[in-house]
């Protein structure tokens, strides 16, 4: 029904073009199927979910203006070469939930490029799911078009969980030129943050997280994992803080250069069949455990690295290499180096 300029109803509201390949533009005028900010403003807040895009859609979806979603919202292009872009980096935009909306979920068979702020309120979750069909061609690119200036991209929730997924996930990196791009801050007051790469199990997906001022910070738990064992995690100078704990797992190799990993809970880095090289700071008020494959795993702590824990530290692999300048300190517990 329509009353006082609002489109009201219950259950799901499905907004989709006639054909699976049709382009979708959200926010401003554009090609194909378009929904303007004014049209979004006409939607009431009683729908169980607003779904934009077809279940068989291979759409190119562009969000070009700031939007506020009053209901749980799914934006999808889950088949073929479906992709989603949010902003261009040329001017700041914010896509957010307001009021009763309890989720914002974006699905794309290929890539998702985010160059605009994303945030949810209350308990609303935030999910960015690139490579949704698991074909290994969909990357999640955060802040790649913000340049090397001090432009900042914010992705955040209050108490809702954050899920970031792609064959490759690049945070503050131009994945094509392998150059540092914009500053990306992923924040939640209390929700867990999950980051999944290598979605097709061919071992060539990975994580790139390199900007000096970029961060992943929550009072919840941070889980960084290769969804199908393998791939590479390349952690540069950024901050990862999960005050309930931090887990980095299932990568074939992991390199941390000037990364700061902090937690009031446990920090675990495990299932490494190749090499874990660190010139970084890992600090826990509980325990730290770094384990690698018993036959081939190598843990290499280089000069400048610092591993400190209030309770205990476990370093376990086929080889544990510790440079003279590397600091490994357990304040009140036990160091086990195997």
Summarize the structure.
The protein has one helix at 37-41; strands at 2-3, 6-7, 12-15, 24-27, 33-36, 49-52, 60-63, 67-69, 73-77, 83-86, 94-97, 103-108, 112-114, 117-119, 125-129, 140-142, 152-157, 162-165, 168-171, 173-174, 179-180, 183-188, 193-197, 206-209, 215-218, 221-226, 232-235, 239-242, 245-249, 253-263, 267-272, 275-284, 287-292, 298-301, 306-309, 312-316, 319-322, 327-330, 335-337. With 338 residues, the chain is mostly beta strands.
Task: Describe it.
It contains one helix and 39 strands. The chain is an all-beta fold and 338 residues long. The chain has a 22-stranded parallel beta sheet that branches. Strand 1 and strand 2 (6-7) form a beta hairpin.
